[in-house]
From TrEMBL:
The protein's name: Coronin
Domain DUF1899: 5-69
Pfam families in UniProt: DUF1899, WD40, WD40_4
Lineage per the UniProt record: Eukaryota, Metazoa, Chordata, Craniata, Vertebrata
Recorded GO MF terms: actin filament binding
Keywords: Actin-binding, Coiled coil, Repeat, WD repeat
Record InterPro entries: Coronin, DUF1899, WD40/YVTN_repeat-like_dom_sf, WD40_repeat_CS, WD40_repeat_dom_sf, WD40_rpt
Domain of life of the organism encoding this protein: Eukaryota
Family, as annotated: Belongs to the WD repeat coronin family.
WD repeats: 78-120, 128-170, 171-212
Amino acid sequence: MSWRPQYRSSKFRNVYGKAASREHCFDGIPITKNVHDNHFCAVNARFLAIVTESAGGGSFLVIPLEQTGRIEPNYPKVCGHQGNVLDIKWNPFIENIIASCSEDTSVRIWEIPEGGLKRNMTEAVLELYGHSRRVGLVEWHPTTNNILFSAGYDYKVLIWNLEVGEPVKMIDCHTDVILCLSFNADGSLVATTCKDKRLRVLEPRSGRVLQEASCKNHRVNRVVFLGSTKRLLTTGVSRWNTRQIALWDQEDLSMPLIEEEIDGLSGLLFPFYDADTHMLYLAGKGDGNIRYYEIGSEKPYLSYLMEFRSPAPQKGLGVMPKHGLDVSACEVFRFYKLITLKGLIEPISMIVPRRSETYQEDIYPMTPGTEPALTPDEWLSGVNRDPILMSLKEGYKRNSKIVFKAPVREKKSVVVNGIDLLENVPPRTENEV
C-alpha cells in the first residue's frame, strides 16, 4: 500500500493575527517594572486595567476601551494599596467590579464608576485580610457570583465569600509558593502549579488533592484546563532548560500524554485556551511571538497552526472575554499586549478569514455568558452547575442586573479551619524574593 500524507481539514488553519493601528492602541502608560510572573493586565467588554509603576504603594489604571490614544501622565489611578499590586482580575458577572492583590498582604475589591475614573480612587468597597504574606494571585470562580480565590506567599489558597467578606475555606496542601490556578469548565475542580515542582488537581471545597504529579523532567510553571475535555495543559522547562508544553489526563497525572519542546528561550510561556474553537495560544514573556495550535481528542492531540510574529517583546497579555469580540470581523480571540519599552498596550485580534458578511455560526458556538449559574451558598454546599451559555449572534447588548453589595464588618482575627491565619505565619524560605 502506498504511503499517503495525512491532511487535516480545519476551519482555523488560516487564522491570522492582526495588530491594531497606532491610534487604536493605548499609549503613554507607565507599565509596572515588577518582575513577578503575572500579566499585570485585565480586560473586559468595557474597561482595560493595567498595573502601573508608582512610588510608595501600588496602583493601576482603569481606562474605558473606547478611550484609545495617548493617556495623560496625570490620568486618575486606583491607588489604595500600600505595596506593589501583583495581580488584577475583573469580575466575570459584574463589569465594573475588579479584584486586586498586593505585597501589602491584602486583597481588595474596587467598584469602578460608570464611564471610568474622574479622580484617584483610594477607597476599596471591600478589603480582605487573611494572608500573612504578600498575595500573588487572585481568580474569580467561573460559574458562581461573589466567590474569589487568592493565593499567597504563605503557601495558602483562601476562598472568599464576598457576600460576608470573609474567607470560608482554606486550601493548605502546598509546600511552596503557588504559581498558577486554573478552573475546569464548571468550577468543580482547580489545578495548581507550585514552586515545589508539583502539579495538583484539587477539589476546592474540601481542599482534597485528587491527583498529583511530581514533574521531574518537566518543571511546571503554568497550567490551564482544556475546557470540558478532562485534560490539562502545562507549560514549563525541561531538564535541559528548553521551554516545553505537556498534555495531561486530569484523572491520571502519573505520566503526561505528550511532551513537546518549543524552543530554547528563557521567558515564561503563558498558555491561553479557547474552548469554543479548541485553540491553544502560547505567548512567551519577553518575546514578541504568539504561537497557536488546535487541540484534538485523538493523537497527536496538538496540531500546530501558525505563529503571530512581532519584534516588540511582551511583558504580559490581557484577554478579551468572548462577548467583547467583533463577530462581524470573524474575530475569535483578542489579546492586549503590554509593551514596556514603549509604554504601549497593543490590541492583537485573531481573525478567521471569511468572505461572507453574515454571522458565522460554526466559529461562534454558544459560549459562557455574563449570568452566574450559582449563588455562593449553593456552591459552598456542594452544588455544581455548568455555566449559563449565551449566543453572540445578536451582539452583546444586555447589561447584567447584578449589583455588588459590600458587607459591613469589623476588622478582627481571621479563623479558618480552626487556625488564625494572621497568627500562624510559616517560616521564610530561600524562595521568597
